[in-house]
């Protein structure tokens, strides 16, 4: 079985709820506090592929000040610019994310991660 991981921010209620849900289901995921241990741009690109999303913005916290300050809401912003911004500002990555092998899911709502277990 693949190693189960959660990209976790302990200050986020959804992140805490998702971690609790996994533990209640008998899982003991590796907890990665991604604000303290930032992902590289390559890791973020790999995560995007595992999420199976069509749009990079779908894995971003578009309401964060850094998003608007960096001009990432502009229609001509490239995916490369968005990936670079998430590497530079990890708080722009939507949370929590549960990773199970080659699949990943954003825990909004927390129950949505059960699909990949």
TrEMBL record:
**EC number, as in UniProt:** 1.20.4.1
Q: Among its keywords, does the record have Glycoprotein?
A: no
Please list the reactions this protein catalyses: [glutaredoxin]-dithiol + arsenate + glutathione + H(+) = glutathionyl-S-S-[glutaredoxin] + arsenite + H2O
SUPFAM superfamilies linked: Thioredoxin-like
Q: The organism sits in which domain of life?
A: Bacteria
Report whether Oxidoreductase shows up as a keyword of the record.
Answer: yes
The record ties this protein, via CDD domains, to: ArsC_ArsC (cd03034)
Xref: Gene3D superfamilies: Glutaredoxin
- An example Gene Ontology molecular-function term: arsenate reductase (glutaredoxin) activity
Pfam annotation, one family:
ArsC
* UniProt keyword annotations, A-Z: Oxidoreductase
- InterPro entries reported in the protein's UniProt record: Arsenate_reductase (IPR006659), Arsenate_reductase-like (IPR006660), Thioredoxin-like_sf (IPR036249)
- Matching NCBIfam families: arsC
Could you say which protein family the record assigns here? Belongs to the ArsC family.
Q: What is this protein called?
A: Arsenate reductase
